[in-house]
Structure formats: structure tokens, C-alpha cells
Amino acid sequence: MPANLPPQYFETEKKLKSAKTSEEKIVIMEELLSIIPKHKGTEKLQALYKTKIAKLRAQKQKKQATSRGGPSFHIDKAGAGQVVLVGPPNSGKSQLIQSLTNADPEVGDYPFTTHSPYPAMMPFENIQIQLIDMPPVTPDFLEAWQAELIKGADVVLVVLDLDSQDTARDCQMISEKLKEKNIEFVPAGKRIEPGNRLFRKKALIAANKTDRPDADLNLTFLLELTGSEFKTVPVSALRGDGIEELRAIIFGALDVVRVYSKEPRKKADTGDPFIFQKGETLMDMAKTVHKDFARKLRFARIWGRAKYEGQ
């Protein structure tokens, strides 16, 4: 059976040949898995990439285990932004990653299924957003490397279990545990003011397991704790409820804009946008294209809803 791979697959595959680090290769292969159509003709290709990803992760963990001073992880940012998932044991973070991306993390109905960071790429419209699953946070467990990954991320997605005995208390515990590491959550969309020794991180809440019997009651208690400031999205990673809404809210929290390049007398390339933080300028884009391009730039034409065409 033919694979019928789209043109985007071959463009992404080219990046794999120039990737140097294991992290880069894993991110690109995750992106390829998200692009490959899911049917019988691509099963072998999907299996090939999953095997390669598993081998790279195993090699990486082996190196970390033999290094001095305990584990230390760094994951280069990829796509339109980096979102770290944090949550208590059995909140369903890995299953949520599986629902939002085409990655295949280990999912188990027992605590600490995830024992090292797991990056995956979430497709949203014509871009990809990097999600990172991590081991759960408990009153006694939050490793230094987890705090460092959270500090470096663009957004934190707090995943809570609506089937827990006390969902609101779990949320409070995570907030208190991170404050011990000088990390404070602020609602996504709110201006982040410099903190006194605190790393202030934009946060969203995914209230998972809406398919469970006590979900509505636990959600009510959770909303009483968080109020209307923090965006809370009820989802079921198992059933798929709320997944598309969550994708859009994650994108909005990154506070980025997509900019499309256009060669003279040709249509704009709307398939592969440049990604910039809101507030960045035309010169920032010129520098991204090439430093010489920025140095020699005399003018540019801009198209957009708030501009005259070709202004």
C-alpha cells in the first residue's frame, strides 16, 4: 500500500540530515510522526521512527546515569514555543501528550510512569508547539532539573486530576512546591512584572478526566480556589473532550504572531511562517532572515489586516 506522504514530510526530513544533537533528532522525528498520515501503508515508517526515538532516548539516559552529580536535562526549544506539563501523580499528563500530539509516551495507571523529560510536537494550524512531559510533582518530590526546565519554558500547563480525592489541594500543593524553588505562576495573558528573586511563569490549567463520575464536583471546588484569573480548561485526554479548545488556548498563551515572507511578484508563503513574540519589530525579522539582510535593509512592504496592502 503506498504511503502517500505530503510535501511537508520531505521538507521536514531534510532537517533531519543536518541535525547534530540527539535532542534535535528526537524533536524532528516527533514532528515527522505528526505529519505522517495514519494508515496501513505508513505503519512500518511510523514504527521505524518510534524505534529510533526510543534508542536515542535510551542512549541519552545511559550517558546521564554515568555522569557525575545526578541527572541534568536540557531540552532546546523547538517550534513556536515550549510548554512544560506539571502535575501530581496519575493526573494523566502522558495521556494528554498522546492526545495533543502524535507521540507515543509510556502511559500507565500507576505513579511515576514518566521518569525523565519527554518532548513532543503539538500541531496547531500551520505551526508546531513543543510540549514537555515531566515526572509528577509531590509534596516530597521535585528535582532541581525539573525546576530549571520550568524556569526556561515559555508557558507551564498544570495538569490536574478531576478523579482525585482533592483536586484543589493538589493544585495548591504544586504551587507551594514550586515556590520553594522560587517559581511563581501568573495567569497567561497578564503582564509579567519582575519578581523579587521569583521566576514568574505564565500558567494554564488543564482539568483532566472529565469522564469520571465526580469530575463536576471536583471542578467546582478547583474553580473556587483558582478563581477567574487562571484559565482552566476541562478536558478528557481519554475521550478527547476539550482537546481542540486546549490547543488554541496553549497557542494564545504563547503570545506570538506568525509572519509570512513574500518574494516580489509571488504569492506569500503561508505554509511556513516566521514566529515572533508580540512587540518584536520588522528589524527583528530581518535579522532572522540573515544578518547581512538586516544590515542592508532600506525598506520593506507589509501586508496585513491593520495595514494598507503593500504599505
Given the C-alpha coordinates, what overall shape results? Answer: globular
Total count of strands = 9
Portion of residues in beta strands equals: 15-25%
Q: Name the CATH superfamily classification of the largest domain.
A: P-loop containing nucleotide triphosphate hydrolases
Class computed from helices, strands and strand pairing: alpha/beta
Mean pLDDT: 84
Low-confidence stretches: none
Output the CATH topology of the largest domain.
Rossmann fold
CATH C-level class of the largest domain? Alpha Beta
SSE sequence, one letter per element: HHHEHEEHEHEEHEHEEHH
Provide a count of the helices: 10
Whole-angstrom Rg: 21 Å
Span from first to last CA? 50 Å
Architecture per CATH nomenclature, i.e. the level-2 architecture of the largest domain: 3-Layer(aba) Sandwich
Q: How would you summarize this macromolecular structure in one to three sentences?
A:
The protein has about 300 residues and is an alpha/beta fold. It is built from 10 helices and 9 strands.
Topology:
Layout: H1 7-18, H2 22-35, H3 43-66, E1 82-86, H4 93-100, E2 118-124, E3 127-133, H5 144-152, E4 155-161, H6 167-179, E5 183-187, E6 199-208, H7 215-226, E7 232-234, H8 243-254, E8 256-259, E9 274-277, H9 282-289, H10 291-296
Parallel strand pairs: 1-3, 1-4, 4-6, 5-6, 6-7
Antiparallel strand pairs: 2-3, 8-9
Helix pairs in contact: 1-2, 2-3, 6-7
